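Hello again, I could really use a second opinion on something today. I've been staring at a protein lately and its backbone has me curious. Can you walk me through what the tokens say about the fold? Take your time with it, there's no hurry, and the full record follows here:
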Amino acid sequence: MPDPTSSNTDEELNTAKQVQLDNVGALSRDQLTPEAAAAPEGHDVPGHDHATHDHTGHHHPPGKQVVDLAGQPADEHAGHSHGDGDDHDHGPAGDNPYLWPGVSLTLLLAGIALDYYTVGFFTGYVRLLWYGVAFLLVGWKVIRSAVQSIPSGNVFNEFLLMSIATLGAFAIGEYPEGVAVMLFYTVGELFQDAAVNRAKRSIKALLEIQATEVTVLRAGQSLVLDPKQVQVGDTIEVKPGEKVALDGTLTKGPASFNTAALTGESVPQTKQTGEPVLAGMVNLESLIQVAVTATYQDTKLAKILAMVQDAVGRKAKTQQFITKFAKIYTPIVVALAVLLVVVPSFVVEDYVFRDWLYRALVFLVISCPCALVISIPLGYFGGIGAASKAGILFKGSNFLDAMRELDTVVMDKTGTLTEGVFAVQQVQAVGLEKAQLLRLLGALETKSTHPIAKAVVAHVGAATAGVAVENVEEIAGHGLRGRVDGRDVLAGNTKLLRKFNVAYPAEVDQVVDSIVVGAVDGQYAGYLTVADAPKEDAARAVQELRADGISKLVMLSGDKDSIVQRVARELGIDEAHGGLLPEDKARYVQQYKTEGRKLAFVGDGVNDAPVVALADVGIAMGGLGSDATIETADVVIQTDHPSKIATARRIARATHRVVWQNIWLAFVVKGIVLVLGAGGLATMWEAVFADVGVALLAILNAVRIQRMDYSTPNISGPSPAAPAAPSVTENLSVVESMPRELREGPHHSNDQTK
């Protein structure tokens, strides 16, 4: 909950709600270019744009609501409006928000002492002026916020409640209580701001991953520049211990990197010359050089940071409920307070206006919805932050709730349960020499980015150099067609050959491994088999998901059905379907949803875009490897470990539990104290302590989310693999080999089959 006396309110709100993708990571003024740093604080600063955030580039299919932190424009944040035109000027207190509350507290305590000892001069206008100054030091901005929110139509908010209660206390001569209400409210707000900052610390800490300067080699000279000034094609130099500032290719290696900031993995990664490195990695040992392949704003890291910051602006259903509830609750409370003053005058025999007005003011103080308004988003901030530390990036708190509600997980195979790293195992040539077949197929496969295509190209090596490739056509779910050295070449699955009426031996259909079938000039020319290795935690992931309450596990793949069924048996997956095109996968997912299932689809978020759109939660494996993954999926598993899906569910459940604990705490305690206040059994002193106390308890409870242990629980019992079957490692190298897209389109990433 923003604090009208806090010096960082405007920055926090806009950072949380309106971070733009292009300028992500430039939120600290010491990280800005000189031109940006010279801009007025909070205005036109990159990463601090005050316009409505544009979600362009983020795929959010129908049914997946994405809303602002306030649920709507700022002036509609029920019970918590800042009002149009509220510029949050923080006055001479500068960056120390505790200065004026401290002075106010001193004046209040001194005034109470003077009252207690009945000092002669401390009466009349002197006493009013003394307490008036103490009140205005902490209250004038609250009153101003209440007034400024009126033109926008957001009249009933916490600022109005506090203003009426405190000014009413002054009107009936209860000066100390009026000051105390406003002072403790303000102090409570400051504590809440501190808690919000703590909850968002793990998210904001991601910003520190980005380097603020980089050494560029140009014309034989070393120049230290801002990373934003570096161009694609430049060569940067990274010393031991320095962060890599931009995505690129290692040109001087080998080198070891600490990737913990990106993936959460503590084991260093070794990169060879020619391999990609990413911004945010830390060079551990030797001086290296990197050829830049992406500008500052286009790095994988920048896009991830944009996603994480954008996440805090997307509300869960619980948050939306609280916002709507507060919009109704606050005016009802004000109406009840009025009735509490008026109605007794008709039914109470010894009615005293001042006494009932005092009760109504106590009623207003207690009814302030601070605990609800702050603790709910704070809980979700904590959940998103805890997930980010575990290498799991949620695009919004609404997906935390959706993750908890899942009962079905549908998984792709290649890149999800398998490494997606393939190698050619066998070559069968018909009518051509093996070397000639490899040369033709390898040259055509250079036009694809699919892992199997890359495996074929890597196997063929330099033999494709100088080979003319033209008129390449990719046929989704089938393969590639093109002219290679003047010859018509097909490379893909058997469906591709059938499509073009190319006859092939029946035994080819019996090959269990992933297969790339070739045809040259309309004649069958042979095939290659390719194997893929499973991820080491694939079987563990299935066990954890089942133990975590997932009742149905499904694998949908474009691979041969025989391979898919074999993998399913190995891992203990309930249901599996192979040989699917993208539309087939979408049909299965729609069928599960029609059955009333809440499901997640786990894939790469690019080729499976139609399925991700249909799923309640789209989960992408390998956020650091695909730009489109970051933009499409609802949740990104940075480490590529499928076992992190269960971790994400544990975090989601813990977040939900804490959030509802806070809701019940606020409702029960406030309900009890409201009744006591209406009956004259609670004074304003007790009311303000009850309000601030409940808010602080809710905050402390929400902060626990950051401290919880989400590590993998011990799972007893045998592996779900069939007892008589070979080991998972042995079989999956064959079974997983069937890449989704091999069956669907020769293993090509944009055929959307996977």
Remarks:
- The two ends are 44 Å apart (CA to CA).
- The chain has five domains: 98-208, 214-310, 317-382+654-707, 394-418+534-649, 420-533.
